Amino acid sequence: MLFTSYGFIGFLLAVFVLYYLIPKKMQWPFLLIASYIFYFIADPRYLIFIAITTVSTFYGAKVISDKKVAFDGWFKEHKKEYEKEERKALKAKEHSAEKKIFLACLLFNLGILAVTKYTNFTIANINSLLAAFGRADGISFVDLIIPMGISFYTFQSMGYLIDVYNGKHEAQDNLFKFALFVSFFPQLVQGPISRYHDLSQTLYEEHSFNWKTVSFGLERILWGFFKKLVIADRILVAVQAIIADTDTYNGFYAFAGAMFYALELYADFTGGIDITIGVAETMGIKVTENFIRPYFSKNIKEYWNRWHITMGTWFTDYIFYPISASQFMMKLSKKSRARLGNNLGKRVPVYLSSFIVWFTTGIWHGASWNFIVWGLGNFVVIMISQELEPFYRWFHSKVHVQGTFGWRLFQVIRTVLIMSSLRMFDCYRDVPLTFKMFGSIFSKSSLSQLNAQAFIGMGLTGFDYLVVFVGMLILVTVSLIGRSGCVREKIYGLAAPFRFIIWYGLFMATLVFGAYGIGYSASQFIYNQF
Asked: Is the pLDDT score of 5 beyond 90?
């Protein structure tokens, strides 16, 4: 069910009404049923996959948690009976048993994700390798189901499993409560990737109807609809036209396409997250924020601390830190320092860990080389930035521009340009073509390219561009206001007539200028493919 479809709106309305009419103790079981109905409507076969992940993770974590509790209790009572080395051996044996269960559950579920998403990608690369050695006959592709949101619910489940294994919290005792954590329908399509200790605090609570909470949720949903329908789906037409005709739309238009896509991606993804957070908020449930004004970032590292935050922290906490602190990396660090010197040697394990994280981040986004190159492109830019830190410090000691408005503006524009350039791999989905189109920006751009007819030929009218421009100004204005506090709290503090004017105006703008209706093919949210 597309979030912006009439079917979803009807489904959401029914869930919302029933949620507050039923007894409060039945609210979380009702949400579980609603979530499975939502997933069933998408495709009944998907239920098999999410159920397998749910059940295997629940019992895997439960066994690990129960063993920890039982062993800790027994060890506290009997540790005086054993010598120091014997106690260490007992702990090691227990840890080894828990680790086997943990790895079995982890590899099983990540294996499901790998098989469904990456089997045909692997076959395609094997066939290309065979063809390079003169083998015309290749391996046949496999017709596999890729369940909706499998990357999101798998990572969310595995984050829970890892936290239980590391002793951050005990396992959930109720299978159905855990099933709701995995399948909560607003975040099932495109995240955020919630942590159990965050989402569970409000997910299972009893919630009474609260007008302020509900109105804040509805406002957030409306804001998401505005971003998606008025801006993202409108500018998408021009983006698709530029990507589809690279012979015509190169040079300056390739640059324009990158900028258009940056706007489309932001409005689309954040719009979907706004709807997710808003839907949860109408029912009193708090979902983690996933974006904090990323296009105001002064560098790429800061950008990734503001963009798709839950994904970034997942990769940092569950991949980067464990790898960088592993015994292998400790040995590598020691050898690197001995051979390359302390200054360079200590950075080798960090850079290798970062390389693995960004490779994984790229392939998580999609089973194709363009996403892998995009991920590694981010790695290269971040590593170069870190290596140039001494130069930056020298520059700022000589040229005193740091902290000025002009310098901050330059940094923001630079970040947007770099990220938009990297996102061209996402646009064209072909690595050689992406490099070709990026090069054309510098080799084929000319003033003679600029004419109104070419822009109209992209499928948008002058009025469409005006709507997008005004919508972008509204986005920037709201982001600037949000730097000093919650925008909705500020609006809530206004007199009722002013609140009505703002939100009724936004509703009418979405209704009148939104890209939808008869003959219009609504686009799925971009991150739904992941």
From this structure: no
